[in-house]
Amino acid sequence: MKMIDLKDKSLEQLEADLIGLLKTQFSLRMQHATGQLSKNSELKRVRRDIARVKTKLAEKGVGNE
């Protein structure tokens, strides 16, 4: 996922993406803890995608009250 992909998404879509990524991250962390994770780089990719989505949400003003 790149920032260009996130540019045209609405707030609802970004929030849905964030929830999905957080669930994926949890799943990957559990796989890593039990030794079932084959690609350790997936954790890094998901973590960075979460940061990208959170950055885009901040740019759009979510949480700035």
TrEMBL record:
GO terms for cellular component: cytosolic large ribosomal subunit. The keyword Cell division does not apply. PANTHER family: 60S RIBOSOMAL PROTEIN L35/50S RIBOSOMAL PROTEIN L29 (PTHR10916), LARGE RIBOSOMAL SUBUNIT PROTEIN UL29C (PTHR10916:SF0). GO terms for molecular function: structural constituent of ribosome. This is Large ribosomal subunit protein uL29. It comes from the Bacteria. PROSITE patterns: RIBOSOMAL_L29 (PS00579). InterPro entries: Ribosomal_protein_uL29, Ribosomal_uL29, Ribosomal_uL29_CS, Ribosomal_uL29_sf. Keywords: Ribonucleoprotein, Ribosomal protein. Belongs to the universal ribosomal protein uL29 family. Coiled coil: none annotated. Pfam families: Ribosomal_L29. One of its GO terms (biological process) is translation.
